[in-house]
Amino acid sequence: MKGIIIYKGKYGATLQYADWLGDALGLPVFPAGDERPSAFAVADYVIMGSSIYIGKLQLGEWMLNNEALLLDKKLFFFVVCGTPLNERAKLEQYIEKNVPLLIRQRCSFHFLPGRLVFKKLSWTDRLLLRIGAWLGKKKGETIVMQDYDEVKEAHLQSLINTVRDQCRIPSVSIDKDMLKQPVK
Ligand SMILES: Cc1cc2nc3c(=O)[nH]c(=O)nc-3n(C[C@H](O)[C@H](O)[C@H](O)COP(=O)(O)O)c2cc1C
Fold first, then answer.
1. What is the pTM of this model?
2. Start and end of every Flavodoxin domain (predicted)?
């Protein structure tokens, strides 16, 4: 089965996970909107990745624009976020609000802890985060404002195992440099 990884993030956490996944599964990785149409069209399965900002998935618009094509394929989705992973109800709400029902029904979701480096944020994101934290406090929610970095390759293991199981990918690693060498 052929696969492809398509992601959208802002400050590198989603990109980092997408690259690790690409290496582990031997799949091409594309930022959303820059995917090679031929690679997308022939893919049997798609692993989508997105971070989340003020309750909205970065990949939301791309998903809507490509819904018809996606519904032909096996789907996996990793969401990179600041919400603690034990806040399951909140995480599931993000999916309900952002992912069209037909995609949701055929997709396996995985939540991955993200990264926040306050001084690297744009001024609009700093402001949004402050407003979000203020509004969240009123509702009794905690929105983390301090820097954190939980982006670790080990968090991908469950997703990697699921993809390997469902798409029959052997777990032998391929040395990509060997593929580039001419056949003698
Ligand atoms: C302005 C702002 C808003 C955010 N909103 C949310 C949110 O609603 N829910 C959440 O779980 N994480 C939220 N986060 C945390 C990001 O999803 C997290 O930092 C993620 O790692 C970003 O990944 P990226 O660098 O690939 O975009 C927010 C971060 C910022 C800076």
1. 0.91
2. 4-140
Which one is predicted more confidently, 137 or 107? 107
Q: Where are the domains of the chain?
A: 3-114+151-170, 116-149
> Which atom of ligand 1 has the smallest separation from the CA of 151?
21
What's the fold here for domain 3-114+151-170?
A: Rossmann fold (3.40.50)
Q: Alpha-carbon distance 70 to 47, whole Å?
A: 10
Residue with tokens 């990785």: 29
Ligand 1 atom nearest to CA at 11? 25
User: Best of 17, 54, 59, 117 to mutate for ligand 1, by most ligand atoms within 8 A of CB?
Assistant: 54
Residue located nearest, by CA, to atom 25 of ligand 1: 11
